[in-house]
Amino acid sequence: MKKLFALILVIAMIASVAALAGCSNSGQTAETTADGGNDTAADKTYIIYSDNAYAPFEYLDEASGNYVGVDMDIMAAVAEDQGIKYEIHNEGFDASMGAVQSGQADAMIAGMTITDERKETYDFSEAYFDDGQVIVTKPDSGIASLEDLKGKTVACKTSTVGGEYGESIKDQYGFEIHYYEGSDTMYQAVLSGADVACIEDYSVIGWAIQSEGVALSIITEPVNVKGYGFAVKKGENAELLELFDKGLANIKANGKLAEILAKYGL
Fold first, then answer.
1. Domain region containing 187
2. Which residue from 43, 110, 196, 233 puts its CA 20 to 30 A from 156's CA?
3. Residue 29: what pLDDT?
4. Angle at 41 between CA 39 and CA 44, to 5 degrees
């Protein structure tokens, strides 16, 4: 009887140890899962900010009341390829940069040129389009070259590479810069005579002239050609950036990106 009791006691102790071991493994697995992150792209809706008047990359389609354009189509194609859930907020270029920096937005896609200076603040995807800046004026302005800008005022859009380019050459060519929040207001400043010319990305002003009938002329060849990229706050949202790059590579390979660009004459 004593031997039977001892045997039962040993079995009970073994079962107790096994149970404790099982609890320990379960806790480690839960912790590992938590560290790995259950909140993956499939579970999260990302907030993406963009410009609101930068055709053909993003602009309001008055017929549908929706924003359309190259960036809108690329974001949709990449999201479909990678299973990304997202919301687009078309709030303007400055607002988009501020939203990413404050954490209000997870990322932005807004015809944003990848520069070394911006890389100090943002992490960028691979480039999805290359563009450069040109000088634009009215056909009857008498401005035919950079030298003709001496003593005049030139319009630039705030926080853009076009503005940076203008700042880099204004002393050499003797002009001053007036800044505007949007491309449309910048164009209007030139058309009204408030400024004699503006600096804009070649593809954007080309679209405005050809597709929207904006009565302006390009007088220089594109300079400072660089790529556009999808951007997140530096050091954050690495998973989203990786997903975007994977999707971008796929839509480049399968011809979808070329199809999108061709749709907008690029």
1. 132-226
2. 233
3. 27
4. 60
Indicate whether 87 belongs to any domain. Answer: yes
CA 115 – CA 180 distance, rounded (Å): 21
d(CA 41, CA 43): 5
Specify whether 111 is located in the same domain as 144: no
Tell whether 183 and 105 lie within a shared domain: no
Which CATH number is 259's domain given? Answer: 3.40.190.10
- Give the pLDDT confidence of 129-161 residue by residue, as tens digits: 999 999 999 999 999 999 999 999 999 999 999
Contact 208, 182 (CB under 8 A): no
Could you list the beta-strand ranges (E) of the chain: 45-50, 59-61, 66-68, 85-90, 107-108, 122-124, 129-137, 153-157, 176-180, 197-201, 217-218, 223-228, 231-233
Could you read off the pLDDT of 214-245 as tens digits, one per residue?
Answer: 999 999 999 999 999 999 999 999 999 999 99
Rounded Cα–Cα distance for residues 159 and 143 (Å): 25
Alpha-carbon dihedral 120, 123, 128, 132, rounded to 10 degrees: -10
Q: Is the full-model pTM beyond 0.85?
A: no
Q: Examine the domain organization and report whether 53 and 103 are in the same domain.
A: yes
What is the helix (H) or strand (E) element at residue 56, kind and residue range? none
> Residue holding tokens 């990305």?
201
According to DSSP, the β-strands at 129-137 and 197-201 are: antiparallel
Yes or no: say if 120 and 229 are a contact pair by the CB < 8 Å rule.
no
* HSE-CB of 5 using CA atoms within 13 angstroms: 2
Among 55, 49, 77, which Cα is nearest to 68's?
55
